[in-house]
């Protein structure tokens, strides 16, 4: 990009054309004072966007990009629950541009590793109870192909004060009937209070449900992604 395009917040045309298509969750928007209107088009404002990027089969990561955004869409993007298509430079994955011309693609998230991974938490985490508030499907699948849901739940953790979390969990098809408000589901907590993985294998066993849910329950990272 030349200096003038960078100053005006013009999206990188080369990256739009050649970048790897990925999925992004806009975490924050910082608007600047610079605006532009081309002909009779909508007013655009230069913004810094903080985006959590989901590339197919890879762990998510956060990065920032600065580009113009149509002002009417800024409140939606700033809500924390906006999903967008992003173009990623494979040689420098932190270099991205938001591509507003196409919908956010479906991706398969990678399995988390170590103590933040769903498998480790299910095997070693502290047993808790999750009371489901809502579950919203996302255009993502977990490592085993199960669809990922943004789950909002109230966590009952021993004698501690109940608290609410919003996490991404992969849900096996056999467990979909359990996703209704008020459903009480066994879960495991990792080292952080937000590291929650619902144990759908145990939930199905309790309910008498069928299906192979062994090892299911997490979206790779136990507490990703946040979504409204």
Estimated share of beta-strand residues: 35-45%
What's the pLDDT, averaged over the residues?
85
The number of E-state strands comes to 11
Topology pattern, helix = H, strand = E: HHEEEHEEEHEEEEEH
Radius of gyration: 20 Å
Global outline? elongated
Key descriptive features of the protein:
228 residues; OB fold (Dihydrolipoamide Acetyltransferase, E2P); 6-stranded mixed sheet; 5-stranded antiparallel sheet; 5 helices; 14% helix
Task: Tell me what you see in this structure.
- The chain has 228 residues and is mainly beta.
- It has two domains: 103 residues, no CATH class; 94 residues, OB fold (Dihydrolipoamide Acetyltransferase, E2P).
- The protein is 14% helix and 43% strand.
- The strands form two sheets. Strands 6, 7, 8, 9, 10 and 11 form a six-stranded mixed sheet that branches. A five-stranded antiparallel sheet has the order 3-2-1-4-5.
- A hairpin with a 6-residue loop joins strand 2 and strand 3.
